[in-house]
Amino acid sequence: MEIRYITCICCPFGCQIEVAVGSGGIQSISGYTCNRGLNFAANEVNHPERMVTTTVRVIGGMQPQVSVKTRKGIPKSEVFRCMEELKSVEVHAPVRIGDLIRENICGTGIDVIATKDVQQINFQNFSD
Amino acid sequence: MYDAIIIGSGISGASLAYELAAYKLRIAVIEKGSDICSGTSRGNSATVHSGHDAAYGTQKALYNVMGNAMFDQLCSDLKVPFIRNGTILFAINEADMEEVRRLKHNADKNHVPGVEVLDRDGLLRIEHYFGPDVIGGLYAPTGGIVCPYTLVIALCEQALRNHVDFFLNNKVMCIQKNATGFFVTTNKTVFQTRFLFNCAGTHADEINNMVSSNKITILPRKGEHILLDKKLAPYVRATISQTPVNLPSGGHTKGMGIMPSVDKTIILGCDAHDVTDKDDTATTAIGLDEITSYFEKNWRHLPISEKIPKFPHNRIINAFGGLRPHSTTDDFIIGESEDVAGFFNMAGIESPGLTAAPAIAKKIVQDAAEKYHFEKTDVFIPTRDHVKPFRDMNDEERRQAVMENKEYGDIVCRCEMVTKAEIKAAIHSPLGATNVNAVKMRTRAGMGRCQGGFCSPVVAKILAEELSIDLTEVTQSGEGSNIFFPKNGNQAKRNSQ
Amino acid sequence: MKTYDLIVIGGGPAGMAAAISARENGCEDVLILERGSSLGGILNQCIHNGFGLLTFHEELTGPEYAARYAEKICALNIDYQLNTTVIRIDREKKVTAINADKGLQILQSKTIILAMGCRERPRGALNIPGSRPAGIFSAGTAQRIINIDGYMPGHNVVILGSGDIGLIMARRMTLEGAKVKVVAELMPYSSGLKRNIVQCLDDFGIPLKFRTSVVKIHGDKRLTGVTLARMDDRNKPIPDTEEFYECDTLLLSVGLIPENEISDEAGIPLDPSTCGPVVNNDFETEAEGIFACGNVLHVHDLVDFVSQEAASAGKNAACYIRRNGLSNKERTVRLFGSDGVRYTVPQILNPDRKDEDLTVRFRVGEVYQNAFISVFFNDQCILRRKKPIVTPGEMELIKLRKEQINQFPDLKSITIKIEKG
């Protein structure tokens, strides 16, 4: 049996969780202080996931890019592919928080959404 | 074909350009850096020395005292801040006092006005407080402070306004002399001139030795300084150092001192170390350690220790190094070359070079004018038009400034209160800033306690807009010092929209 | 001249929460002055997730967290001015501010809340020897360049300091294709959160070297490398431990300093340990009617705590106006940190005004394992709590019940100590 030590990343407290893994999979989990921690530890052993937060380009916006996130964690192994796929994504202003930026990123079934509003450039601003 | 070419745009070249501009001559200044004032004159202790310690009989002593006397008028003409804050050398034992008396004798022979030997009570009449070990000292009331690059920029701008041409990024590769004058070949082009003035700082020996058979040697001697937050400004008035007996650095320096700057930061320094690289202004662990440990140990003597009892490490905002162009003759090398007519040196201008330069330039130009019959122009404008910085304005002036130009309401550098209007003005000024450091030197944006953390990306953006270049092309200090790179390889596309 | 009830200086997380809370507690004329071009402050560039678990019970990114508050500001019709720099305040609660549209304004208020946040310590403050090439950025500046401006500050990176922004930037630059070679930390521990070491460094195999610092900077025009060395207990480099790292970028994440220039100039006393104003349990500074909250008061690890503190400051400002400005400060109790506790916030308790439990936040100066946090009323220990670990990187908190305090009519001082187990 192997003991895996995991630092929980669900919240800032960073609980130290011990997971005992045997031939038949997880045998026991200890050290967590909430259910999120319990789930995280189990996932981290079997299929670790990470949320990806980055930016994509905006056309015609008051800002050149908009911040985005995967709606929830995607498999850790897909993180760099997700970044690569988002490199080519462009959206047109206006963008609203929660707008869908990319459906089913890397075939993970998880969507990428905007986390910020970006207004359209108002051309009247430039005609004074 | 120029009448006069000046190699170098530090305090020497700038002073010469300003003096020569008063004559009917075609003049050019050529500078190897990406901006004027990018060498020795940029990093020094910003002191206008009284001349009490320059050895009697040397050129250093002569021009130091003459130069010092010129600063009030010069700085008032050029609208450059200059303060006669006085210089104090304090003594903590009888050996120090002996040195104080020797310096007083030297000062008298140099005709430095007003120098006094004071006992402890006398010193306390000038500064409220000194540490209990201080027994007396020397007071030189004509000692002052000036911002060296502000002065150099002002001299150059005024020279330009009086029709002097400036060529940056031009490094002199070789010089040939013929019957009519000189061919100066740079990495960019070839200039022709009748008269040639060597103000090349640490490289002045290379220039001289291309032309004259009287070879000279200039050794770069590094001095390092530490800068403290302007919060301490209320506690530092005069320039104060210990009598230079038994100091580190083998007496190459005027001693470790503490002084205010005209911009209210506090300068500590400096040490002196001979180095080999003539452009290496990097600070060193040894140098910084020497300064901090000196001040840790001797802080208690200083007037500031009354209010700030210990050396305030947490008030250090920056450190910088500079190079003194030290001549192996131990004195300034100035005037027309003995073997090459029309070639003038202003070399080895190390401390008190900043103080002496205006007087040396005046003397060189007077001699040349007399010998070669330069004719004065009647259109020379000695006084500079200069807009008061926002940070020095009162509320009413600020209100007025924003009403006239909205961009005065846009504060870019929060620590030094520099507005977008002033940054744009620096970019579009006669010798306009083309990179972030050049903006900094002209406006102080990025020189405050956060050292550009907030404002340097904004300054870069303004540069990109005003110079119509991409942000990736904006540099910190000229070619090769780019700050931003494209992200996602998509930048070009965005900018073409 | 119009008199505002409250002027909030800074429209970041602290300023927004304070303004909202003040309005909800009855403040009519509230004005926020923000020097950036949008509300939200630094949160706008903190695009990573991990915000809001305590406040909203869900995990938000920085811009999302800011947007929740900004929406409320709009819903409550709270007035704000952007791109506006406050030049000066005074004890009479006059605020001098400037912007491009309105020019120079002198505004009168009944109360002020200081919510200016903090700034990053620059390279100069570290006194690292070497040249001054391009390519040296504080981590927050680099974050802004990537996340707001859309550029890269460089490609081969060394990070000095393991504060949270440095760790977050290690991941961010890696995701954007840069190579982060190492994170060096002068101290024997990280001042960043554990989760960030895991998800920002360990996930990408980025080494974290403790007791290591940059001892030399190389490069003339653009940075070409840095020399790292192991440091001894007096923070001096250990000979023969130098290692050269080729890099074009050095990020500094070496501490945050509360931005108190205008408070200091107004003569508001600052605590040398926090670099923020000395405050009482109302978050009122020693200048009556001027309150402080968030990172301008002391540097926080979590924005949720900033919002809580700010909400309390906002409410107290509203109470101050209801009381017609009268402060009841008859009895004052000093709070002290000692034996490893670097500071407490608040520093002063006015028990007669205390109508609720007292929350004391503090930080320790080094790592303690299995130690006790002890609270003394005068000389008497009234609370002793065992903690498996306390570190300088994580702010601690102790709640003292009102009844406990009221049981001590001659209470003069409250001292918080670390006692080794």
Automatic annotation (TrEMBL), chain A:
Domain of life: Bacteria
Protein name: Uncharacterized protein with two CxxC motifs
TrEMBL record, chain B:
Gene3D superfamilies per UniProt: BFD-like [2Fe-2S]-binding domain, D-Amino Acid Oxidase, subunit A, domain 2, FAD/NAD(P)-binding domain
Database matches in InterPro entries: BFD-like_2Fe2S-bd_dom, BFD-like_2Fe2S-bd_dom_sf, FAD-dep_OxRdtase, FAD/NAD-bd_sf, G3P_Oxidase/Oxidoreductase
Pfam families: DAO, Fer2_BFD
SUPFAM superfamilies: FAD/NAD(P)-binding domain (SSF51905)
Residue ranges annotated for the BFD-like [2Fe-2S]-binding domain, each copy included: 411-465
Source organism superkingdom: Bacteria
The FAD dependent oxidoreductase domain, residue ranges: 3-365
PANTHER family: GLYCEROL 3-PHOSPHATE OXIDASE, GLYCEROL-3-PHOSPHATE DEHYDROGENASE
Name of the molecule in the record: L-2-hydroxyglutarate oxidase LhgO
Gene source species: Flexilinea flocculi
Phylogenetic placement of the source organism: Bacteria, Bacillati, Chloroflexota, Anaerolineae, Anaerolineales
Automatic annotation (TrEMBL), chain C:
Lineage: superkingdom: Bacteria
Entry keyword set: Oxidoreductase
GO molecular function: oxidoreductase activity
Record-linked Pfam families: Pyr_redox_2
Stretches assigned to the FAD/NAD(P)-binding domain: 4-299
InterPro entries: FAD/NAD-bd_sf, FAD/NAD-binding_dom, Metab_Enz_Cyan_OpOx_G3PDH
Gene3D superfamilies: FAD/NAD(P)-binding domain (3.50.50.60)
PANTHER family reported in the protein's UniProt record: ANAEROBIC GLYCEROL-3-PHOSPHATE DEHYDROGENASE SUBUNIT B
Name assigned to this protein: Thioredoxin reductase
